[in-house]
Records
---
Amino acid sequence: MTKEEILQKSRKDNGGKDMEDLEVQKQATMVGYYSCAGLCALITILSYIFTKRISLQCWIIFFGMLSVAFFTKFIKLKKMHELVVAISYLLIFTLLTIAFIFELTGRLPS
């Protein structure tokens, strides 16, 4: 087999993507997760400085995104660890959403 045939077989096995593409996608996903967490932290700090309250909305979106990502990984990989992490993130998402609804309805002080 030539080098090009090996690369072609690898792309076929990996859905048309070579290993470098997959690694770059993985790194981009991680950078996205960390950037999102950093932005949520920055928004929370700024919100607290200017309003003396913590903004839950960005954290709801962040943990919702993580739970969907890990549920997707679980469906694709069938690894129990991914399911446990996904359920944990979903629980955090649910609790933050409930707190946000209570805050909107006046049951929690804003």
---
Amino acid sequence: MSRSAHPAGPRHADVLPEGHYTAPPADLNVLDPKVWARTVERNDRGVVTVGGIGVDELREQFGTPAYFLDEADFRARCRAWADAFGTEADVFYAGKAFLSRAIVRWLKEEGLNLDVCSGGELTTALSAGMPAERIAFHGNNKSEEEIRKAVEAGVGRIVLDSFQEIVRVAHIAQSLGKRQRVQIRVTVGVEAHTHEFIATAHEDQKFGIALAGGQAAEAVRRALKLDGLELIGIHSHIGSQIFDMAGFEVSARRVVQLLAEVRDEHGIELPEIDLGGGLGIAYTSEDDPREPHHIAKALNEIVTRECEAAGLATPRISVEPGRAIVGPTAFTLYEVGTVKPLEGLRTYVSVDGGMSDNIRTALYDAEYSVALVSRTSDAEPMLTRVVGKHCESGDIVVRDAFLPADVAPGDLIAVPATGAYCRSMASNYNHALRPPVVAVRDGEARVIVRRETEEDLLRLDVG
């Protein structure tokens, strides 16, 4: 059923102002499976469900805003990545995308390893029972305390990010009577087709040691001389939200060239190569991500071909999908608070969350989809901007999207593909309370990260 439409601005694409949008879909009630978690569908009442539970029931039990994560989808994606790469490669879930103790347990059960980049992520991983040897520790400025904790725990690898860190990790490992397995992160001069702030392989940025000028080769020399280190390979990461494999091909070629130089100079062949993560997901219907088996086939062919050309044995490959696993498995549920038409422009739809639960639109100009999920509607499409409740004009959740023209206060709308980086980057701006993460599976829902309370805020305020 639908409600009466608001007398607001443009509806059709031929009269729309310039912006980030395409023509409206033929039917706003249809959910594109490309951008929604696998068990999401509409029931016969027109209510969107996940794991067999309607969003109206979920709102009643858990409130809004809230992140709802399709556990079956998450586990299936873990298995898909593990199966695609097989036993001859390693898949490390990038914990920075979203990490909790429940996530760690699922990863462990589904056979994936874990990549962490802070002491807090390491603590979470260890507290949930992830074997330390299945953990990789990243970061461009790891503290001595973090390094010591990682070495003491026996993490499987530490990714070295600077000349200072080579010495730092070696010294701490020696002081503990250990020999730490390490990789050297190199920047290969490949700039991924992505936002400038998340393109990480060109030289003018904070990560890694550049291949240019022989710096990476010098890092290898220094690491091989230190008794506290066991250099097992080279690490490269070229960016995020990448769909084109061409960047990986160039990156792999340059990393393999370094492996050949190491062999020629030192007489050893490093046994591992980590190509990082950064594979894209569908935030909108226009995005076209690759499936894990396509990615695995392409990367294996690239590395094998380059190693054969260089006369090297093919090293063991590692990859680090984070967003590609958890991103599509969750959506954020909001309640509409106000609907404000701007004649001739668009209609602003304000929700009970905002940049405190999804900073990516403001930070990266990220694009998202949105849908009315508490009911269906036969109203015509209306160009909207979904915004939050914070005191910032840049508090935008979805910059340009079509919703039914009868959307009204009290309706529930949802933004899909918010499993990655939304809860991880959430804040208490305006003293907002960070939303819960609720796992849904087979008709059951349970909180895996609880909603913050005002008592949580005041507990840290010692003034």
---
Amino acid sequence: MEAQPSRPDPSPGAPSPQAQRDELADLQRRIAELEGGGRPRRHRWRSFLSAVLVVLAALLSMLSVVAVWANSMVEDTDRYVDTVAPLAADPAVQTAVTNRATTVILEQIDVKALVAELSTAVQQEGTRPAAAKLIGELDGPIENGLKALVSTTVQRLVSSSAFETLWTDANRVAHRSLDKALTGKGGGAVTLKDDQVAIDVGPIVERAKDELVKSGFSRAGRIPQVHSDFVVFSSQELAKVKTYTRILQIVGSWLPVITVLIAAAAVFLAAHRRRVLVAAALAVAFGMLILGVSLTVFRGIYLDRLPAEMSQDAAAAVFDALVRFLRSTVRAVAAVALVTACGAFLTGPSRAAVTIRHACASGIASMRGVAGSAGLRLGATGRFVHRHKRWLGGLILLIALIVLVTWSYPSTVVVLWIVAAVLAAFAVREFLDEADDTADGTRRDGGEKVPQPS
């Protein structure tokens, strides 16, 4: 009796019989749905509801970012100080503060009256007519010189580190005394009136007065204590913005959670969950793009509507500082959304995703083979990783999510570092993945048989 020819072993990269049966069953199910007139009615309703939830999640994601920003600006003093502190070194703001403080000081000194008093005093002392005439002709230069002295003194003060400290301390005290300028509550160095946010430059005038006295201008010592406002933000719609900010402050802690739950519900209801996850992530990223563009457009509208007496450059610097962390959050959320979309796509069955996964796995398997040739033996560790590979992957993602959620105001750089750490962890998991020893004394490593060392 002739021996039956042995059946050739399946190629290492071929799918298992069970996978082939599952694929055949899936194809039969799809053919049955098509022959029956398409998807069941239940799937169509689920798909429609899932799409609505995706759009809602994208819209709420924009509100969530603004709400978190508004809430942090109101509740977090350090966050507010970090926001406004760079303005002390901004040239446009320094120039505007210098001009305002100089104007206040000159109003108190009355340089013209001082020069007129000097001329009268010279004539009363019996000075020669020629000298008295000369002093009278120098009234203009003397007046300009005193104004220049005041301006230079104030400018030197504003451009020094002392002003940065004064600016930071004043804003820290102001934040503790009110619910920020946009809420319209409280008092202190920052006030809200006539649709304007203004900072009291009285402390700067007081410091400049001391510097003028030290420089020999003793008349400056007679300047009384003054309080004058330096307008940093002005808008006719500030009352409405104040109301909206208050609402966003209240919902700021819960709106992001609600948004995530709605997006999760959209994925759960979908017939093709991976596709909907990709769509939801891309929708959120698109929402962040719209929000970023809206900030740029609103900036131009705000600057165009400023009163003529306000410095355009200083107002632009203040606006950019106030929304700096908001822009950072927009970029960070967009990065998270894009990474999520890429991750969901790469875990899918598409040819591109399979090719990328196979290339990565082959490269890591080659590295593992080289390490094995050099004497590395994974043993129980490799078998443990192989048996619990999926759970370890979930644990890696869970740890990354916890780090991202608990990080105070994560930036785009933080998101990218977390992504890099996750990719590195998955690479290590793949490297350590080693199947159990087989009965013929060989082991499976990366889908290929590798002879066991003697």
---
Amino acid sequence: MRSRQTAVLALIGVLALSACSPAAPAAPPPPMHPAPGANTAGDPYFPEDGNGGYDALDYHVDVSYDPPSGRLDGDTTVSAKATQDLSRFDFDLRGLDVAGVEVDGKPAKYSREKNKLIVTPAEPLRSGSTFRTRVRYSGVPAKTPHDGGSENGWARSEDGGAYLVGEPHSASFWYPVNETPRDKATFTVTAHVPTGWTVLSNGREQGTSAKDGKTTTTWADPNPVASYLTTIAIDKFTVQRSTLPDGTPIVSGYAPGAEAREATGDRLPEVISFLESKFGKYPQSAAGGIYLDENIHFSLETQTRPTYAKWAEILTLVHENAHQWFGDSVSLNSWADICLNECFASYAQWLWGEREGQNLDDRYRAAVEITKGSTDFWGQKLVDMGPEHLFEGAYDKGILAVHALRRELGEAAFDKVLHEWVGQHRNGNATWADFEKLVSHVAGRDLSGFLTDWFHGTKLPSDADLYPGPLRP
């Protein structure tokens, strides 16, 4: 008993001494080696796009728009994580006049060079730290020059409304951004417009209020978005709301003159249900469409709410909503891999035709016979085709390539490839090399020769690859 008591008293003494001893000083942080972030994301097809040194986490874009003048006033906050010690960093921003920049609440120096906004914070940013950059700006974005092709940028409708579509560039026409698909981030927009006008954007409605002749609406997408898939449309829309069977909200807006396409838009639940049977559960937070009365030459798969030209019909709905899996949820890492988006969204149109009774093998053979002598058709590479040919082969040759792949794999394996692809890479980025590995893995054999023949080749595939399985005439 005594010896135990002595031990207890000794222990108390040790604890008391420990409590009185000063804590060891915290180790000083490692020295910083600040350097500018890269002014490119590194995609060779568009070397001036995107930036390095940070990972964008979230955009909160607050804009006021005046339809009569076309003026936009913006106040955007970008949350990001430094991936190196940063002395300065860049955003992509086209046109528009910047009034001020703050980093973590402190004024920052800034300058402009081409389409870059160069920001120098008051103090260097440590690698691994999260920081917030606020940019205030204004201008008439419709006056900002664009490259044409699939880049409409910010455009005005005849009644003074506005819409935005562009691939690969659109976001930098109206807010500061790391404009590369490699850096997806969540996205919120709060827009202020005169009463009587409606704002549509990505994701779910967070609320609308009216005060002093202004209507304020907020939209938010909790899923990460590639910047070219963010959007805003301002018009006197007729808005239709409903839900998918699982409660996912559907919001579609029809611009003046586009109301006749409501019958097509009403088929969206049917389209999504069909695509779910092919690709798996719908991967987005919301659904719907922005139906313009504009004769632009392409529609675009803006995330959760595709933007449709005036000529869009049911197959366009199928195509753009297939992108919600292929391109939006699973985004390309390099533009050379555009087939990951367009070949599969285009093939979804054939799958819809099969649903309606078309024999796709007959359709395939007929297309091959018609095009056999065309070097223009078969000379189109589907992977790494060069930036000048980016949107050429995927919509026609790409469909044949995917159907041939389906017949080479067989139904069960093809179905597994589609489901595993979107399941493994949901809300992320992937490469064509990743896809080829998955195909050979699921097939249980090396299909690199077949894939090279069809997707990398510039001539009619060999007879065995052209007519695999039941495709042989």
